[in-house]
Design goal:
The chain has 223 residues and is of the alpha/beta class. 31% of the residues lie in helices and 28% in strands. The protein contains six helices and eleven strands.
Length: 223
């Protein structure tokens, strides 16, 4: 499978990119339903205009400042990925792989692990140690300390081993926006970003190049 990467360099409307993912996803699933093998996968890397998304089992009670969301004009959209609730906005790198895991010899659990590993390797280039937390998908900083905080959220959908949705890595995100919700359903953990951790100005495009490289390396070794 050839995997094509594409970086969109301005914040994108959520619904527009959601539909683009679904078109790619439905095409690949359709090929597999007919007994075919998809020859092309896609990785979309982008920022979103401000939006809140709820996973298919997400709890609306985790929206704690609904009036403020309305005041800011931030839409809340329920979508088909796993996970609970999260915020997307400028300064956050969102990565949507639409690929066939079967050709990568990956199950869903090992795929999630691979996404986490790609992020861990990327933020290590900025001197940040990312870790996993048992039972809490994503990448975390300061694990096991009172300052445990999340730097990357992950939520995917998979059908016939074809994936959509993916990960959201905070680069220079406005972390104040996370006060409007209980991020990922947690009430006792914070969120952070690469800029917050390093104290340096970092561009999303730069991080996108590094993350795409690590992600492709990890995927290709499984083909």
């Amino acid at each position: 499978m050839i995997i094509k990467t594409e970086f969109l360099d301005s914040p994108q409307p959520y619904r527009e990119m959601w539909q683009r993912q679904r078109t790619l996803f439905d095409t690949m699933v359709g090929i597999k339903r007919k007994g075919g093998i998809p020859t092309e996968g896609h990785i979309l890397l982008l920022e979103h205009q401000p939006v809140i998304t709820l996973g298919r089992h997400g709890d609306e009670a985790n929206i704690i400042m609904a009036s403020e969301l309305e005041r800011r004009g931030i839409e809340c959209i329920r979508i088909e990925r796993g996970g609970d609730i999260t915020y997307h906005g400028p300064g956050q790198l969102v990565v949507y792989p639409v690929i066939d895991l079967e050709q990568m010899h990956l199950g869903i659990k090992s795929y999630i692990n691979l996404l986490e590993e790609a992020v861990i390797r990327t933020i290590a280039e900025y001197g940040i140690t990312g870790e996993r937390v048992e039972g809490a998908t994503g990448v975390w900083i300061g694990v096991g300390t009172p300052a445990e905080r999340k730097i990357c959220a992950i939520g995917v959908k998979c059908s016939r081993y074809v994936t959509m949705h993916g990960l959201a890595l905070n680069v220079s995100t406005d972390l104040d926006a996370f006060r409007l919700i209980n991020p990922c359903g947690f009430t006792d953990k914070g969120v952070t970003s690469i800029v917050r951790e390093t104290g340096k100005p970092i561009q999303v495009a730069e991080v996108a190049l590094r993350l795409a490289s690590h992600l492709l390396q990890l995927l290709q070794r499984n083909q």
